[in-house]
Amino acid sequence: MALFADGPAPTIDNLINEDSGLLDVAETTGINVTAKLRLAHEEMESELRLWLNRPRAAAELLWTAAPRIEQIVTTPPLKRWETMLSLAMVYRDAYFSAQVDRYQAKWQEFLQLARDARERLIASGLAMVSDPVPQPVPPVLGTTPAPYPGGTYYVSVAGVNAKGQEGAASWASSITTTTGNAILVAPAAWNRDVATYRVYAGPSLDAMVRQNTVDLRAGLTYTYLPGQITTGTPAGNGQAPEFVRPLTRTILRG
């Protein structure tokens, strides 16, 4: 699973699945849906930090480090809260922009659904990992002379920590090459928790599979040989939760 700190979990398509008229409303009222996803994420982060920074018992202070926002895994309850909160923000702005009653009704409906999802998260607790591996930014791609076919190729990278746990893969970078070239993959600077990395590549987004059988040390550049490895393991969804931190309703406001 992806980490909460990797950014908004729901996509615009996820919002449309919940409300098919979303894009028409956004276009009519001039609302940036991507911005609402980001604002919902930031509001949730503020709520979560309130809990993470709460006073802890003396025994907990002695034996465990303070939990960090970077350790939180995005579980279905967390994603649903973010989805419903994003929709509530869209319809709140739509109502104040157009003063249309049905927008107000939608706003209140999604706000209540967001509260319900938050309650489910409180009941289930926060899923966390001890050694988080953030999602990296897309790699920088270049070419080097080599006897490989030309075409358009897609490449993403995923970090791996010292425990061998793989984080969520980056968004893919693309490059179009001519025949007689291989592709140089240069990941951006890695987070301190990343020990090695893996490369996923292919001629389409649906055909990207792992290229390096041995994990590469962070900081090294990888040479992707188009067409050499075409079947294999696709990128995973990120780290699995290792433990759950219980939540209390002191996190709630309003």
Describe the sheet with the most strands.
5 strands, antiparallel
Q: What is the number of domains?
A: 2
- How many helices? 6
| Structural class by SSE content | alpha+beta
Radius of gyration: 21 Å
Shape descriptor reads flat
The percentage helix is: 25-40%
Order of helices and strands: HHHHHHEEEEEEEEEE
Count the E strands.
Answer: 10
Uncertain regions spanning at least 5 consecutive residues: 58-63
Distance between the termini: 30 Å
Would you tell me the overall average pLDDT? 91
Taken as a percent bin, the fraction of beta residues is 15-25%
What does this structure look like?
The structure is a single chain. This protein is α+β, with helices and mostly antiparallel strands and 254 residues long. It folds into 2 domains: 4-132 and 243-251, no CATH class; 140-224, no CATH class. It has 6 helices and 10 strands; from the N terminus they run ααααααββββββββββ. It has helices at residues 12-18, 22-29, 33-52, 58-63, 76-98, 101-124, and strands spanning 126-128, 140-145, 151-160, 173-177, 181-186, 196-202, 209-210, 216-217, 222-224, 243-245. The strands form 3 sheets. Strands 3, 4, 6, 7 and 8 form a 5-stranded antiparallel beta sheet that branches. A hairpin with a 6-residue loop joins strand 6 and strand 7. The chain is flat. The two termini are 30 Å apart.
